[in-house]
Amino acid sequence: MLLDSYDTEGLFDEMFDGGREVRAHYQLLRERLDTMSREELDQKIKNLETLFLRQGITFTVYGDQRGTERVFPFDPIPRIIPADEWQTIEDGLVQRITALNLFLYDIYHERKILRDKVIPEEVILSAAHYRPEFVDVDVPRDIYIHICGTDLIRDRDGSYLVLEDNGRCPSGVSYVLENRMAMKRVFPNLFGSAGVRSVDSYAADLLGTLQYIAPHAKPDPVCVLLTPGHYNSAYFEHSFLARQMGIEIVEGRDLIVVDGFVYMRTTRGLRQVDVIYRRLDDDFLDPKVFRKDSMLGVPGLVEAVRRGNVALANAIGTGVADDKVTYAYVEKMIKYYLDQDPILKQVPTYLAWDEKDRAYILDHLPELVVKAANESGGYGMLIGPRASKAEIEKFRELIIATPRNYIAQPVVYFSRHPTLTDGTVEGRHVDLRPFVLSGERTHILPGGLTRVALTKGSIVVNSSQGGGSKDTWVLHPSRT
Amino acid sequence: MLSRVADNLYWMARFIERAENLARLMQASTELLLDSETLGSRYLNDYWDPVLTATAMEEQFRELYPNGTAADVGPFMTLNEENELSITMCLRNARENARTVRDQISDEMWTELNDLYLFITSRATISLFQRAPENVYDRIIQGSLFFHGITNATMARTEGWQFIQLGKYLERADKTSRFLDIRVHAGPDGTSLDSIQWTSILRSASAFGTYRSEVGGEPTAEGVIDLLVFSTDFPRSIRFCVREIDKLLHRISGAPSGTYCNAAEREAGRLLATLNFGGHGEILERGLHEYMDDIQKVLNDLGQSIFDTYVILPQDQLRLTFIPSSESQQLRWQVLQQQQQQQQ
């Protein structure tokens, strides 16, 4: 049997408890896995990879002239979350996104939280993604982050911690939907009557979220998805979502601004656009306002947004909320705006711009994880305990040179999950990225992307650096 | 429909059709070569010149193979990725266009085209090509035919479908006219074509069976021209293709047939009239090569007019505030910026 020699090595494991007993919500899966042989499983995985490749469910590897495409590695042993646990996650995420949206409104309007000195003013005003151009500009329904991907990890005792908020252009949701489709197709008998909640409503909820922010609450607004283009690593996702929602996927050159309104260029002339789900960084949106050399943006778009003639999701300037320095203050925000205690805890964070913290960081580099404040994808990161002397010294210089750009955290723990490896099934570290939609109400997709670090011992789960993914099953309340 | 999407669909179809036609041409030419086994190696090398000329690859071939021989032509035209016009590159272009507009085509269309691309770029295919090139050509032809069949069976007859058909028929008309032109300056002593060569041309256009049943007898210049240029029923004849183009253009614009509301419709209508009222006599009198050359020019203009009417808008030239100097630099710049976008 596949799981017979499985060893948790005394670490927190999703499937097995400390006494190496299968947790109750994994019992059914365990029984089903026991009926499968390794050969059968391998064959199915091969079929699955062929399926992904044929359907072009791939990401583009950069730095390769031919634009090589790879299949995002998929592990067939699903991650299961019982209903009560999920309820806590959901409550925590709703609380968090509510606070973040209130914070963004505040920062771009009265700045009460700064005046009350809950957050030091300089932290916000020096954030790379803060957009002074949008101070006092109203956005539809006062929502800034419409689509958020929040990364969660589990501490040594199993409690969920927020690792970071991705409030600009979070990606990965297409894999959630495709993984589910693949699991149903290739492992129908694993599903059976497991009581797994469906993820099918995401596209409809996303479209509803976009329609909700249409300027002047216009009925039947024209929504489009703005992509950087098919050389972007996430292009598959862009085209997948556009198709699921039944909206046009456009590039910057398909759009044109005339008299402050945005139009798309069609074979029958210009057609007005009301809402843009953009998968483009702020910097590239409009060469007239931000980067002048942007070939991906739309000249005049920002003016159209200011005039309220078109809505953007996410709004411009949300990066100030998912800045890793701002992150350190989110618990305080929740208290300040909602007068509640945070439901989901987060990782203790030292800020290099603060003199006392900086001294601590520089003294403890070999024990800490250092992160650049505005990078994603696992780049610009130092994992102290695994770094060479030279790497540590390089980061020491970086931190001293631009302290605002760095934060440090103790090495965090990622829970492990049984994962298929070459020879057998072993524990691999996983995280969880649920997707949050804020529109008329807040939707949390029941599931999310479980990313798994396929290299033994590694905690880097990013697809660009050897990560894979798992289907994530949230169980119906009646099944717990 | 977005102008750019119309353009992508049109080119997707053109590139697939081009790959299919090239595959059939290579197959027919290789077979013809087997019938001419007594040829010396010098003639053997000359044998491919007209094929390279007709497909506009002659210069590229000399560049990549300064001492190229007959044996180099097949790999060069089929799998070579340095040859921008090879079958592999056609299929890559078709697929890139399809990938850009995946939300507009059916899953089945995408899967078929992607399969064909994965086939042509696989290692197994490279070795198969050395052993049995005809199997590779068969698969390419079949893939293209499947693709068009799937398109017809799974896609709504919307504007997108019409632009796909436009691309297919324009490319097909162009290729048929080029195949007819191939052997004209070929024979060892420059004399007229014999029936073996006409047979090869018919095969290149998948028309040999039809010729037998509709015309009959040994292929002659008159018979082949009647079928490949003027037939109203054979789907690869130039007239058939132009008639379809004319119909499609009117369906897209809504203008009544026999009238025109843009340059593309006017050019298609005029060419169709020439074909409707023409015959093999005038072609043979004027010279097959000259006549086909003219047709290719009109088809080129037609393609440009379609682009001008439906894709490019006058504002296009003014859009960029920052323009890298050369086109290739511009592309590289664009790729770089697209990749820079953080997908968190």
Polypeptide structure, described:
The complex is a heterodimer of chains A (480) and B (344). With 480 residues, chain A is of the alpha+beta class. Helices cover 30% and strands 22% of the residues of chain A. In chain A, the strands form six sheets. Chain A has a five-stranded mixed β-sheet. Chain A is globular, with a radius of gyration of 23 Å. By secondary structure, chain B is mostly helical. Chain B has 18 helices and no strands. Chain B starts with a helix and ends with a helix.
Describe the structure concisely.
By secondary structure, chain A is of the alpha+beta class. Chain A contains 15 helices and 23 strands. Helix content of chain A is 30%, strand content 22%.
CA-atom Rg of chain B in angstroms: 21 Å
Give, in spatial order, the strands making up the sheet with the most strands of chain A.
3-23-22-19-18
Radius of gyration of chain A: 23 Å
- Percent helix among the residues of chain B? over 70%
Coarse morphology of chain A: globular
Helix share bin of chain A: 25-40%
Q: Which pair has the most extensive contact?
A: A-B, 52 and 39 residues
Order of helices and strands of chain B: HHHHHHHHHHHHHHHHHH
Query: What is the global morphology of chain B?
Result: globular
Ends distance of chain B = 30 Å
Q: Tell how many strands the DSSP assignment of chain A holds.
A: 23
- Tally the helices of chain A: what do you get? 15
The percentage of residues in β strands of chain B lies in under 5%
The class by helix and strand makeup of chain A works out as alpha+beta
The low-confidence runs of chain B, each spanning 5 or more residues with pLDDT under 50, are 186-191, 317-324
Question: What is the count of helical runs of chain B?
Answer: 18
Low-confidence stretches of chain A: none
Tally the beta strands of chain B.
Answer: 0
What share of the residues of chain A does DSSP label as strand, in percent?
Answer: 15-25%
